[in-house]
UniProtKB/TrEMBL annotation:
The lineage of its organism: Eukaryota, Metazoa, Chordata, Craniata, Vertebrata. It comes from Amphilophus citrinellus. One of its GO terms (biological process) is axonogenesis. GO terms for cellular component: endomembrane system; lysosomal membrane. The keyword RNA-binding does not apply. This is Battenin. It is found in: Endomembrane system; Lysosome membrane.
C-alpha cells in the first residue's frame, strides 16, 4: 500500500511539475515563433506586457512564467473548491482513469502546440489531472494505515525532483522540449497500473465497478466477501455509506471552518510565498557571468527546489512539525529577501540562489506533509475523508494568488 501511494503521488504530480519546469521553454518557443510569424500576433495580445525585453535590465520573456503557473493552478483550485461536495459520488477507480487520460492529453497538447493559447490549454489539462488526483488520493489515505500518507507525500516530492530533473537532463542532453514531453507520456499509464497492482487486483476492480454501477446491496455484500485482497478502503466505504450516510452540507461547512486557521491559512501563506518566488522572481534571478544560460539556470532552480521538497516530504517518519505558522513566517522572509535581491541585484552568484531555493523547497514540502498528517490524526473519523480533500484547497489558493502577484512583479521589473 505504501508503494502504491508513493507511485500515485509520483505520477499525479508529474505533469504539473514538468509544465512548471518547461514554463520558460514553452514561452521562449512561442516568442521565437512570433518573431517569424507576425500573423500570429493577435493570438498573444492578451499576454503581452508593454515593455519589450530589449529595453529592460532583465532578460525577460514577453509573457511571465506566471501565465503558465495560473494555467497550472486555476483549474486545480476550481476542482478543489467544489469537488469535495460532490466527488464522493464518483468511484475512485473512475477518477484514476480520468486523471491518467487527461494527463496524457496535456503532454500531447503542449508538445504539438503552435501558439501560447494551445500550450496553456495543455497546461490546464495537466492541472485538472493533478487537482482531481490530489483530493481523491488524499481522501483515499484515510481508509489505510496513516503511514501511507508518508508514501503519498514522498511520492509527490519525488515527482517534483524526478520530473524537473528528467526534463532538465533530457534538454541538456540535446533533446527538444517537444520530444521530451512526448517521451513522458509513459507516466500517466503508471497511475492506473499502480492503483490496480498495489491497492487492488484486476478482478476485484471489476467487481467493484459492477457494485457501484448497480448500487446493489447484494452485490456489495458479495464484493466484501470476495475481495479479500482489495484493501480496506472500498469495503469501509461501502459499509460507511450504508450506516452513516454522506456528510450534510452543514457538516461540511463546519469541518472547513475548523480547518481554516489551524491548517488551510498557514499552508496557503507558505505556498503563496513559495510560488511568488518560483514564478514571479526566479525567472529574473539571472546571472550573466555564469557558465549556465538563462534557461538552464531557470531549470536548475526548479530542480533544486524540487529536491528540497522531496527531502522534506519524505521526512515525516523522522520529524513532525505541529506549529505550521513558523514555516509560513520563514517562507515569507525568503520571498521578501529574494524580491530585494532581484530589485537591487546584490547577490554575487547563482550558487547563493541555489542554496536559498533548496531551503525554500524544504520549507514548502514540510508544510504540506505535516498539514495533512495532523489533519489525518486529529479529525474525527466521520469527517476525515472530507477534511483531507477540503484542506488541499489551501495550497491552491496560495499558488493562485502568487500567480496573480507574479504578473505585476514581472511587469514592474521588466519595465525598469
Amino acid at each position: 500500500n505504501w508503494i502504491g501511494f508513493w507511485l500515485l503521488g509520483l505520477c499525479n504530480n508529474f505533469a504539473y511539475v514538468v509544465m512548471l519546469s518547461a514554463a520558460h521553454d514553452i514561452l521562449k518557443k512561442q516568442e521565437s515563433q512570433n518573431d517569424t510569424a507576425s500573423t500570429s500576433a493577435s493570438l498573444h495580445v492578451d499576454f503581452q506586457v508593454r515593455n519589450s525585453s530589449n529595453s529592460s535590465i532583465y532578460d525577460c520573456n514577453p509573457v511571465s512564467t506566471s501565465a503558465v503557473l495560473l494555467a497550472d493552478i486555476l483549474p486545480t483550485l476550481f476542482i478543489k473548491l467544489f469537488a469535495p461536495f460532490m466527488i464522493h459520488k464518483m468511484p475512485y477507480g473512475v477518477r484514476v482513469l480520468v486523471c491518467a487520460g487527461v494527463a496524457a492529453l496535456s503532454f500531447l497538447l503542449v508538445s504539438f502546440s503552435s501558439a501560447v493559447w494551445m500550450s496553456l490549454l495543455g497546461v490546464i489539462f495537466a492541472s485538472i489531472s493533478s487537482g482531481l488526483g490530489e483530493l481523491s488520493f488524499l481522501s483515499l489515505t484515510v481508509f489505510f494505515s496513516r503511514k501511507v500518507l508518508g508514501g503519498w507525500g514522498s511520492g509527490t516530492g519525488a515527482a517534483g525532483l524526478f520530473g524537473s530533473l528528467l526534463y532538465t537532463g533530457l534538454i541538456q542532453g540535446g533533446l527538444s522540449p517537444q520530444l521530451t514531453l512526448q517521451i513522458m507520456l509513459v507516466v500517466p499509464t503508471i497511475v492506473s497500473r499502480s492503483f490496480v497492482r498495489y491497492l487492488c487486483t484486476c478482478a476485484n476492480v471489476q467487481i467493484f465497478f459492477l457494485c457501484m454501477h448497480l448500487n446493489c446491496y447484494l452485490c456489495s455484500y458479495f464484493f466484501i466477501y470476495r475481495a479479500q485482497t482489495v484493501g480496506p478502503f472500498i469495503i469501509f466505504r461501502l459499509l460507511q455509506d450504508q450506516t452513516t450516510g454522506p456528510l450534510s452540507f452543514k457538516e461540511r461547512i463546519h469541518v472547513i471552518r475548523g480547518l481554516l486557521m489551524r491548517f488551510m491559512i498557514p499552508l496557503g501563506i507558505v505556498y503563496f510565498a513559495e510560488y511568488f518566488i518560483n514564478q514571479g522572481l526566479m525567472e529574473l534571478l539571472f546571472f550573466h557571468n555564469f557558465y549556465l544560460s538563462h534557461a538552464a539556470q531557470y531549470r536548475w532552480y526548479q530542480t533544486l527546489y524540487q529536491l528540497g521538497v522531496l527531502i522534506s516530504r519524505s521526512s515525516l517518519c523522522c520529524l513532525k512539525i505541529r506549529k505550521l505558522w513558523v514555516l509560513s513566517v520563514l517562507q515569507v522572509v525568503n520571498a521578501v529577501f529574494l524580491c530585494f535581491a532581484v530589485r537591487y541585484q546584490f547577490l554575487p552568484s547563482a550558487w547563493v540562489v541555489f542554496a536559498i531555493i533548496l531551503y525554500e523547497g524544504l520549507l514548502g514540502g514540510a508544510a504540506y506533509v505535516n498539514t495533512f498528517h495532523f489533519i489525518s490524526k486529529e479529525a474525527e473519523d466521520r469527517h476525515r475523508e472530507f477534511a483531507m480533500a477540503a484542506a488541499s484547497v489551501g495550497d491552491s489558493v496560495g499558488i493562485a494568488l502568487a500567480g496573480l502577484a507574479g504578473f505585476f512583479v514581472h511587469s514592474y521589473f521588466c519595465s525598469l
